[in-house]
Design brief:
CATH architecture: 2-Layer Sandwich
Number of helices: 3
Oligomer: single chain
Keywords: RNA-binding
Number of domains: 1
Helix content: 25-40%
CATH superfamily: YhbY-like
CATH class: Alpha Beta
Strand order of the largest sheet: 1-2-4-3
GO molecular function, one term: RNA binding
Structural class: alpha+beta
Largest sheet: 4 strands, mixed
Protein name: CRM domain-containing protein
Shape: globular
Organism: Alkalihalophilus pseudofirmus (strain ATCC BAA-2126 / JCM 17055 / OF4)
InterPro entries: RNA-binding_CRM, RNA-binding_domain, RNA-binding_YhbY, YhbY-like_sf
C-alpha cells in the first residue's frame, strides 16, 4: 500500500501525463487490463480516462483496473484515473 506522502509524490509526477487509455461504453475487459499491465511495466505511472458514455461508475472502473492489473490506485480526479505499479525491469520512479 502507498502512504499519503507517496501518493502526493505520484500525483505530482502524473500531473503532466496525458491519458493513454480510455474506458468507454463497454467498460473494462480482459484485453484492456492486459494492455494496461504491459504499459505499467514500461512506464510505472499512467492515466486512464473514463469517457462520458461509460456505463459504469468511475470509482468502480478504477477498482477493476487496479485489481486486474495488480496496480496501486493513486487518484481518481474528475474522469481521470491515475495508476501506479512498480516495474520489475525498468524501475525509474523512486518513492519517497
Amino acid at each position: 500500500m502507498l502512504t499519503g506522502k507517496q501518493k502526493r509524490f505520484l500525483r505530482s509526477k502524473a500531473h503532466h501525463l496525458t491519458p493513454i487509455f480510455q474506458v468507454g461504453k463497454g467498460g473494462v475487459n480482459e484485453n484492456m487490463i492486459e494492455q494496461i499491465d504491459d504499459v505499467l511495466e514500461a512506464r510505472e505511472l499512467i492515466k486512464v480516462s473514463v469517457l462520458q458514455n461509460c456505463e459504469f461508475d468511475k470509482d468502480e472502473v478504477a477498482k477493476e483496473l487496479s485489481e486486474g492489473a495488480k496496480a496501486e490506485l493513486v487518484q481518481v480526479i474528475g474522469s481521470t484515473i491515475v495508476l501506479y505499479k512498480e516495474s520489475k525491469e525498468n524501475k525509474e520512479i523512486i518513492l519517497p
